[in-house]
Amino acid sequence: MSLLKTLQLTALPEKYQSLAQEEMENRVWDIKKEMGAKLFLPCHHYQREEVYQFADAAGDSLQLAQISAKNRNAKYIVFCGVHFMAETADILTSAEQTVILPDMRAGCSMADMADIHQTERAWDMLQSLFGDTMLPLTYVNSTAAIKAFVGRNGGATVTSSNAKKMVKWAFTQKKRVFFLPDQHLGRNTAFDLGVELTDMAVWDPIRNELIYEGALENVKVILWKGHCSVHEHFTIKNIEFVRAKYPDMQIIVHPECAHEVVALS
User: Measured by CB atoms within 10 angstroms of the end CB, which terminus of the chain is less buried, N or C?
Assistant: First the structure.
């Protein structure tokens, strides 16, 4: 695995700040032409058009990492996305390739809600409560360190599309599932598989405590207290408004939304 790198600049040099947009764009096109196949620019489809126009490939985060891994000609992969996406590409590409994240401040609020130190501390405390009965699963929207931790402990990384399959598999391995960092994806997936909400606990990494009312032996899923700050903006009121104004409209939501929103969709 190559070393994920960034240009450690506190600010863009003045000479670039004063360039006209057309000149900046021309410079990028010139660099792409000069480097040819040695340079590969995967671009997440959330990006603005001013960046998106230079993309050699576009898609979602895992898809772009997989595309990057198949590209054996590129020496430099400039990943236009957030930190965990570039890390994933770095994991999958060869040691001869360098993955560059242009700005280390490009973070994911969900991934930032769980670091490796919090995770290791939580694991030790939860094992003191439940013993060797848990299997950890982490959403792909997490740091490379947490992905490695999960692997060391027999677990796996999941995506939103295969989460149900992976949680089902996890229950064939252990009695309980420890799911991080998105509590909503974990809750919605487990519920779809027949786990009652009353059998799910929440681990608060800030207060270092398990949030649960009831007997601990009933706990089947431990959810990390994390979420996507964007998906939490979708509320029951949004659903009720659409139902009232457009009664024939179908409402489709992502499983990162809160359970009550998913249930009404």
Answer: N
